[in-house]
Amino acid sequence: MSGLRVVLDRSRCSSIGLCESVAPDYFEVGEDAQLILHRENVSPADERDVREAVRSCPAAALSLIEDSET
Asked: Does the N-terminal or the C-terminal CB of the chain have fewer CB atoms within 10 Å?
């Protein structure tokens, strides 16, 4: 079964938190201003929100890849 996986490029992340506001079950800006990725594998029910979170990232630090092993 294939699925989507979130990839975070920490070197690009500016921890603005737009992703967290769109998909809080997946993303959180911690107290240390670092982005916490709670889940990499995207459930079908959450795909729309996660895609929007990835699109909303102004630093282009998030991407989605097809993962054939999920």
From this structure: N
**CA–CA dist 38, 25 (Å, integer):** 7
Give me the mean pLDDT over the 24-47 stretch: 96
3-state secondary structure 16-57: CCHHHHHCCCCEEECCCCCEEECCCEECHHHHHHHHHHHHHC
DSSP 43: P
Q: Any idea where the domains of the chain sit in the sequence?
A: 3-67
Per CATH, is 3-67 categorized as 3.40.50.2300?
no
- Look up the pTM and report it: 0.88
